[in-house]
Every structure is written in structure tokens, then in C-alpha cells.
Amino acid sequence: MAAREDGELAHVMVPPASRGTFPWEFGFIVDQNLRETGVAVVRGRLQLPEHLALLEGLARDHVVMGMTCQGIFPLVGDLPGCLPDDGGPKAGRHDAYLSFVQGWAHCFREPDHYLPRDGARILFSNSDNMDPDRVWRVATSAGPLQKRWDFIYTCMPEPTNFARKNWALARHCALRFADELGLRGALVGLAGVADAPEHPLIDLYPKLPWREFLRVLGQSRVAFLPNTWDPSPRVMAEAMCLDVPMLVNREILGGWHYVSAESGRWFGDHDDVVEAMAGLMSHELAPREWYTAHYGSSHAGPRLARFVTTLAQQQGRDIDVEDARFYSPRDYRGVLPKKAEPKPSHRSAAVPRQDVLDPAWHRWLAMNSLLGVEDAALLRILESHGIAPSLGRSVLEELPQQPLYTVADELGRRLRKLESVMAVSRALSSLSTLADELECRGVPSRNEFIETYFAQNRPVAFDDLTVRWAARGWTPERLRQACGAQNSEQSESQALYLAAGSPFFQTDAAVSLLDDIQPLPDFLDPTDLGGGVSLRVTPPHEATPLRHEVVNLLFVQLFGSERHVLISPDQTPLVYNDVGEQSEVDVDDPDLERHPLFEGVRAFAFLLGPGDALFLPVGWWHQRRSLDEGISMALSNFVVPNSYEYFSPSITVDGLAPPGLSAGGRPERRRHMVVPVDEAARSAAWSYLRSGGGYGAVPSRAKPGRHR
User: Fold this and answer.
1) What is the pLDDT of residue 346?
2) What is the pTM of this model?
């Protein structure tokens, strides 16, 4: 730090140009504006004379602390089994540079095994200070994130990394995930590696630029970390910032403090890893919300600042800093870091004041008042949009006097009564360990099916329903040959969104395919086969929106695999059913700022492979995702009545959102029927549709079909 004429130390931007480029082993603690605080950091072993001389010079006007981020540093050893025996001298324990280090920011569960006995300590990793919003902006700079892979593993192809990130176990587990669970994986950094697995469900990538890596990470459902001697896997924080839960090796050296009930799950070894992955895939976690609540600059920065302030006081130095972070000048090339600009306030001078309240704001105030939002919160939002609080206050005072408002308030009370009944049902279900499990069994008799499942509104899977069906031999090519090239007159928009109800079979020859769907279980009506069957041909990696059906359905998977996510009807108040039978919540990547109630949803997933069947009761919410090229059908021709009246809401006011904005303050998003997962899937969807793929009803051979 530079001395001013008055004798006090002047804060300067680090690193000053006169210092040149520091070795990798050095760093600094800076404040939120990247100004030096007077604390230097050692994060690697110092043995070269010039490095020791540099440390000695820094120690004259800096507090020196250590930070663990390389293996078992400050100890040294070969990986694995690198921890020296407790009975002998610790390798690296008595290095000369350690006498300058007054405290440690570390990642260890048992720091006494690794760190000098004296000196202050704080459990802190540099990734604790990651900015979730910045990570999200970088990952979404090329467009919204839509799930493409079920799991991701990353490891740069170096011998040390292979040991730290447990590549041998990772390879074994990746193949098991693909073979036993039908999951698609992305292995980053391993393209061209000799023993990289060759599997149709495993995609290999070379080392990716950070922006591209974040995008692949954000498009994955689970970050897989079999790592062992890894002191602080940055990918764990990046995954949580992108709301990607983690499956983590229980023996990991660092980063263990990131694993919670909301961010991920542990596994022990290859014996329990498949079960652990399947369990994690069946639950919806909130890792981004958890990380933001415990880490990030708003939590980790002040915590580190308190530590370095105390450390400095112990050395008789005075440091005044409220927010701190680690800064590495290793890549400094002569351009000083930019000073952080002050954040603009919500209210800008450019926002004109309004003297008359627009009718849209009247509607918005009335809706939020009925929802029980406090007047003060509403007035603050009005003011942030340039509206005088007095205008909003007068409207809020008049609302209770208006007859329509009192009627709406009464209807709202009735609605809350119904929702409270559903809440009680959810609370009771949460007491059962069976509430999150789907029964899989053989086909029951007609009476057992109706009494146990149909009448009880209870989903169930069957593993032997199609054993004797010739349809199990269907392939997309077989259907194209049987039906001919169809959908040639479909518009691009119809083809892109695979609109339900569009014709699939249009020739008499196609009707003969119904003979392959035999024999039917006796709880289905064979005389209504054509009218009660719909067929779906999907390209790989396609996801449907979250929706509920208005009839009972029996899904049958004939070719390929699909993952079904199910949510019980008593959770309807939590899934934001805003239009028809659909919700715009993205099950794989829920926006909890826009849809905060969805955090409380209990969902479970089930994988349908060729020959499997799933009974989906009426009213159950579900989302389907094809894992590969697939053929499936839905049957509604049960022998008991299967027609119901459903109210389809069309809600246009969004919680606390001002007119034209969502609850998170962002523009309204488009609503789609079926959205391909990514550009590759979109292209695949086009090719499938042009060659005969689609989603439509099979023509009836007996009598007109009932409406789905």
C-alpha cells in the first residue's frame, strides 16, 4: 500500500502497475470495488528464493493469510493417499514461508490434519463469493436454458485431475447411469481421452470456454461429482448458481459444505450411486435459492471481511472493510480493474410522474389487495414507477366501498377455503414415505384396477401389459412405411409445436396397425379402440409442458424411453395453472422468483422403457421428456365412464407484478404447447414431422371417439 503525505495508508487499486505480474501462488483480499485492503494471500507452496523474497517484502506492509485451493496444500504428497502418517513429520508442515502466514481460509472437515496448529482459521472457499446473477447472465447470454442432459461431469485430461476428480469411478458410474437408468450425460474435457466411454447416451466434449461450459452445465439436470482429493470444486458453486442440484462423493476433500437437503445428495461408492442418482432425479430441489441464502457476495463477502479485520487487529493493524473477496493478479496485463459502478435505484429521474392512475393500475391494485398484499408494499412499487403514492392510497381507500370488490373478496374467501382443504391433504401426504413413490406391478384384474386405482385416482405402472403385443416391434421407420409420408401440408408452426389432435394416420392401410395393439387388458373397451387411442412419435430430448389431463389415460411406451414427472392434484394451487390445463412453470428449471409457490411441490419421476405402461389419473399434473427417439400411445377407452367437466382458467394478472410485467419484474414469457429442448432437437423435430412424425388421434374403426 502507498503512504500518503499525512502518514496514513492510501487504498490503491490492485495490483499496481509498478508491481508487475505476481506468480500464481500470490493473491490479495480486496473490497467490493476491487481496492486493496492490506491483506496478501498465499495459495501455493513457496520454495523459490525470489518467491520467498517477494513474500518477505509484502509482509512488511500487509497481513499475510493462506488459502487452500490446491490438493492438500499446505501439505504435500502424491495423490491418492497423499496424507502423511500422523506419527511422522508432516511433509510441507515446516516450510519457511509458513512463518509469515497469520491465518488460514480453508476447505477441510478436519483442519488440524492439514494446517499449522497456530493461527486463526475460517471455513471459506473462493467459490463462496460467486455472484449467482453474473453466472446466470453468462450462461443465458445465448438464449434461455432448456434441459438437454440428465447429468454432467467435468475433468480436464491431466493425471492429477484424473486422481482429484476420480475419473475411474466417474467413467464406471456414467455408463451405469446410461445403461441402468437411461440417462443422457455430458462429459466435459474428456473428448479424445483413450478410455472415454463410447455410448449413444453419453456426449463427450473437449475443454470448453467458460461461457460455453456454463451453458452445458445449466442445460443439465444433475452435476455429478465423484471427486475425492479436490479442495474446492468451483463447478459446485456454478451448478448451484444455475439451479442444478449435485450428486457428490461423500469422501470429497473440499466443497462438502455445499451439500444440503436443498442443494444435492451424497453417495458412497459404486454400490449406491445408481440408487442415489435415481432418488435425486425424482425430487425437485432449490440449489440456487439455497446458495443465494447462504453464500454469494452478500454473505461470503462480509464474512471474509470480518475475518481479515480480526486477523489484522491481532497483528496491530487497522483495516476498515465491510465486504471482501479474493483477487488474483496472475493474469494482470497492465489494465487496472474497473471500479464498481453504483447500482441505479429503482426510481429514476427519467421516469415521469403520473397525475392520473391508469385503469391497468386500478386492476393491479385491486388484485393484489384481494391477495392480501400490504398497502405499503404496493405504494412502494407505484412510486418506483413514477406514480405518486397519494394516487394509489386513494384507490386503496376506496376499494372496500365498491360492491364488486366486496363480491370478489367473498369469492376469494371461498377459494381460500378450497385451497386450505388441499393444503391439509398435502400435509397429510407428506407424512407418508409412499407419497413420493410410484407402484410398479403386473396388470391387475378389471375389478382390482377400478377399485384400487381408477376410483382412487391413484397412478400405477405396469411392466407386462404389452408382452403379447405385436406393436412392441414398431419403429418410426415401420410407421412411415405403413402410413406413407404424411403431414406434408402442415404449416411450419404446427410442425414445430406438434399440436395435439393433428392427423397422423390418413390411409386405410394405417388402420391395420390397430391389430398390433392386442390383447387389451379387460379394463379397456376393445370396441372403442380407435376412438380412444392417440399416438405420439418423438425425436430425442423433447419435453412437453407441465399439464393435467381432463380424462384418465393409460400411457404405453412402445419404442425408446420417456421420463414422466407426476404431481398430485392437491398441489394444483402450487403449480400456477394459468391457462387451460397447462402451467407455464418449467419443471426442469423452475423460476422461483416468478413462481415461488412451486418450491413446495412434491413431485416424483418414473422412467418408461419399451413395453412399460403408466396409468395417469384425471387431474394429475405431468410432464413428459423423451430420452431418445420414441413411439408411445395414450389410451382413454376404459370400460367405465371417462368424461368430466373441467373449468379452464385464463388468468391475466400476475401476483405482485405491475401491468405488463411478471412477478419477477420481467416481461411476460410466451406460452408454448410442446417446446423442443434445444436447436438440435428443433431441427430433429422438423425432420421427423416432414417424414411422418407427429401427435394425433388414430381413426376409429368402430364408433366416434370421445374428446381427450
Assistant:
1) 37
2) 0.47
